[in-house]
Amino acid sequence: MRGMSSGLILRALVGMMASVCLLVATTYRPIAAERNKEDRPARGMSISPAYPGVIVAQGEELRLDLLVSNKGRADEDVLLELTAVPKGWDARIRSYNLLVTGVHVPTGETKTLTLLATPDKEVGPGTYQFGLAAWTPDGALRSEKRITVKVRAKEEEKGSQEILISTSYPVLRGTSDAKFEFSVDVENKTDKDVTINLSAKPPEDWEVNFKPAYQEKYISSLQMKSGQRQSIAVEVKPSVNSQAGEYPIEVLVTAGDRKALAKLMVVLTGTYKLDAGTLTGLLSINAEQGKPATVSLFVKNSGSAPQHDVSFLSFKPENWKVEFRPERLTGLSPGELKQVEVTITPAEQALVGDYSVGLSVKGEKASRDVELRVTVKASALWGWVGIGTILFVIAALCALFVILGRR
Fold first, then answer.
1. Digit-coded pLDDT (tens) for 65-101
2. What is the C-alpha to C-alpha distance for residues 176 and 352, in angstroms, rounded to an integer?
3. Is 311:332 a contact under the CB 8 Å cutoff?
4. SS3 letters for the chain?
5. How far apart are CA 105 and CA 77, in angstroms?
6. Which residues, 6 or more positions from 83, have their beta carbon under 8 angstroms from its beta carbon?
7. What is the rounded distance in angstroms from the CA atom of residue 113 to the CA atom of residue 169?
8. Ordered strands of the 45-49 beta sheet
9. How far apart are CA 118 and CA 61, in angstroms?
10. In the beta sheet, which residues pair with residue 251?
11. Domains of the chain: which residue ranges?
């Protein structure tokens, strides 16, 4: 009874220690979010207009999104300048209500600014070129782009009977299991009421739906009056098997022989998920005091983003040993599964009974814990020793009875 009570108390203490160790390890777990930077160049920056060529009516103000992207592994400060502004135009770069001459872009992100260009009354129909430059303060990176603006006479505008589509945020970023929603403005610049049909060209196995602004019902067309402007939501659901990367989506609006196209972009960062367990599915093993016991562990990348570094931790009773072979995995592609051998050696002084050993698999932005029950049994040698002791006692008692019987 005393041995059983001691075993129960020891198991309870070991369980509490394992829980505390797991809590501490979780609290101070090193963040591996920066490891995906290894796939990027040391530095990389670019600036690009959402639409390098646009058409506006005479006297109309130009509003155009500018995308500043940081594709390097370090945050960058990017300076901006309009290198060429046609005569008669007042142009500036803004963010909300601020005039902007520079922007801070964290690694892997894209910042959106707005180019505003207002023509004078004297600016007539024709083609106008704007120059745009971006560079880092140390001069190591520089990007230049040109924007072509065609100004059409008001008579042309009336006779063109156009359908227009535009968006303020053409690029959205998130994980593969996220749902993306773009806000798109459709404008009927014809002199008639029209039915506008909506369609999209997404990547394979992706889903795109159209909804009226602030409503949940799906639509495929719009009834629009002459001169009316209406916002719609474009809901995009990536395929569950989509890998990390950039995915362009074309949205087309048509009314008879008139059409307009908007180019959207979804940037997937991928999902991070790990699965782990024993090959047999059993979470219990038997071991002897001071002798190693081995169990096979599988590790699977169940996410859509690659895991570049997977390490292992153990939470074990005092004086126990836990070894992993291999000690870490340097690469695990989406859907890939690898086998790891785990050797558990109980302490020489371990009491007979059940113990808890925690195994933690840690990757980038994902982890998985496996808890094993290790049953420590007495060595067979001690069984023979016990049998020998019993036989010795029996023999001694028999000899004693014989001696006493003679007396």
1. 999 999 898 999 999 999 999 999 999 999 877 899 9
2. 49
3. no
4. CHHHHHHHHHHHHHHHHHHHHHHHHHHCCCCCHHHHHHHCCCCCEEEEECCCEEEEECCCCEEEEEEEEECCCCCEEEEEEEEECCCCEEEEEEECCEECCEEEECCCCEEEEEEEEEECCCCCCEEEEEEEEEECCCCCCEEEEEEEEEEECHHHHHHHCCEEEECCCCEEEECCCCCEEEEEEEEECCCCCEEEEEEEECCCCCEEEEEECCCCCCECEEEECCCCEEEEEEEEECCCCCCCEEEEEEEEEEECCEEEEEEEEEEECCCCCEEEEECCCCCEEEEECCCCEEEEEEEEECCCCCECCEEEEEECCCCCEEEEECCEECCECCCCEEEEEEEEECCCCCCCEEEEEEEEEECCCCEEEEEEEEEEECCHHHHHHHHHHHHHHHHHHHHHHHHHHHC
5. 6
6. 131, 132, 133, 144
7. 10
8. 45-49, 62-70, 110-119, 89-95, 98-99
9. 5
10. 200, 262
11. 2-30+272-382, 43-155, 161-270
Q: Which CATH superfamily is domain 161-270 in?
A: Immunoglobulins (2.60.40.10)
Place of tokens 């959207």: 264
The CATH superfamily holding the domain 2-30+272-382 is Immunoglobulins (2.60.40.10)
Could you read off the pLDDT of 160-184 as tens digits, one per residue?
Answer: 458 999 998 999 998 888 899 999 9
Amino acid, res. 339:
Q
Which amino acid is present at 126?
Answer: G
Tokens matching residue 325: 């072979």
C-alpha span between 55 and 148 (Å, rounded): 9
- Establish whether domains 2-30+272-382 and 43-155 are of one fold: yes
Query: Residue 154: left if φ>0, alpha if ψ -120 to 50, beta else—which one?
Result: alpha
Tokens coding 369: 């814990």
Instruction: Please classify residue 91 by burial: count the beta carbons closer than 10 Å to its beta carbon, then call 0-12 exposed, 13-18 middle and 19+ buried.
Output: middle
Tens digit of each residue's pLDDT (9 = 90 or more) over 205-223: 999 999 998 888 899 999 9
| pTM of this structure | 0.44
Q: CATH topology for 43-155?
A: Immunoglobulin-like (2.60.40)
